[in-house]
Design a protein that fits this description.
This protein is α+β, with helices and mostly antiparallel strands. The protein has 2 domains: about 160 residues, Ribosomal Protein S5, domain 2; about 130 residues, Alpha-Beta Plaits. Strand 8 and strand 9 form a beta hairpin. Helix 2 packs across helix 3, helix 3 crosses helix 4 and helix 4 runs antiparallel to helix 5. It is globular and about 55 Å long. It starts with a strand and ends with a strand.
């Protein structure tokens, strides 16, 4: 079959009020080269290379095997060469990229003949929500909803002048832990506030309305309950609307925080200094400014 190549971007989901609904693709990636082999092997470089190279308890390999068995296809062993720039467990979409990679690999090496829409639908089903996987597969800013096994989505390209900043603590957070702190019910006032903000969010991205992001990214559904386990969030949320910071939200389920900046180089330097100063007495963090990725998942069959 030759070498099969994949390139999948990181993502930041939820975007404040758009819980399980909206995400953006970010400019750092998971890149994989795969070919059929006598036995499974992984040569990994980049972030968390030690975890990515494990053959046991590996999200990509387990999902790949499970899909092929479910579809009644032979499990073709793969030799994978992987360069991962998406930190694991930091709310930057590593699981969505991994599941999409697994579904694409199963489609190719198992001869499933699945379309891009079917690959996305399978990944969303495995994720349990469509936002991260849709943004990873389609690129840009994506709003998505599931209806049965069908993913309905709309995407826009984020304004060219906006830049995302990710602030990450040292320790990862399991999504299952972040989900466990959420309540089963919400008040009508909180639900209405989130509907209002999430509705503004899509139009803010589509129209380049940076002045709306502070309100459009305000959330009452998940962020107030995750502040105790995502200590950076309450510290950074008040920065929205100052220093050229258009909006602030937890990145995915956390623990990283996403800041959307107006984009001027002098302003980026000012924000970086403001964040460093604010967090100077906190445990060490990683701060990096990236870009919004307009190109979604890419597959290059050999």
């Amino acid at each position: 079959m030759g070498v099969f190549r994949l390139r999948l971007p990181a993502t930041s989901a939820n975007l404040g009020a758009a819980f399980d609904t909206a995400a953006v693709a970010l400019g750092f990636h998971l890149t994989i080269e795969a070919e059929a082999a006598e036995r499974f092997s992984i040569a990994a470089t980049g972030r968390n290379a030690d975890l990515c190279s494990r053959l046991d308890d590996n999200l990509i390999l387990e999902t790949y095997r499970d899909l092929l068995k479910r579809e009644g296809r032979a499990v073709v062993p793969l030799a994978l060469r992987m360069d991962n720039q998406i930190p694991l467990g930091m709310g930057c979409g590593s699981s969505a990229a991994g599941r999409l990679a697994a579904v694409a690999l199963a489609t190719h090496f198992g001869g499933l003949g699945w379309t891009g829409d079917r690959i996305l639908a399978e990944a969303c089903e495995l994720e349990g929500h469509p936002d991260n996987a849709a943004a990873c597969w389609l690129g840009g800013m994506v709003v998505a909803a599931c209806e049965g096994g069908v993913v309905h989505s709309a995407r826009v390209e984020p304004p060219a002048g906006w830049r995302p900043m990710i602030v990450s603590p040292s320790d990862p957070l399991a999504t299952s832990h972040a989900r466990a702190v959420l309540p089963d019910q919400y008040s009508r006032a909180d639900a209405v506030a989130n509907i209002q903000a999430a509705s503004l969010l899509g139009l803010a991205f589509a129209q380049g309305r940076g002045d709306l992001l502070r309100v459009a990214m305000a959330d009452r559904i998940h962020q107030p309950y995750r502040e105790e386990i995502c200590s950076l969030l309450p510290l950074l949320l008040p920065l929205a609307g100052s220093h050229g910071i258009l909006g602030v939200a937890l990145s995915g389920a956390g623990p990283s925080v996403l800041l959307i900046l107006s984009g001027e180089e002098d302003g980026i330097a000012e924000v970086t200094m403001a964040v460093k100063d604010l967090l100077k007495d906190e445990p060490p963090v990683e701060i990096f400014v990236t870009t919004f990725e307009t190109q979604g998942g890419q597959a290059f069959p050999g």
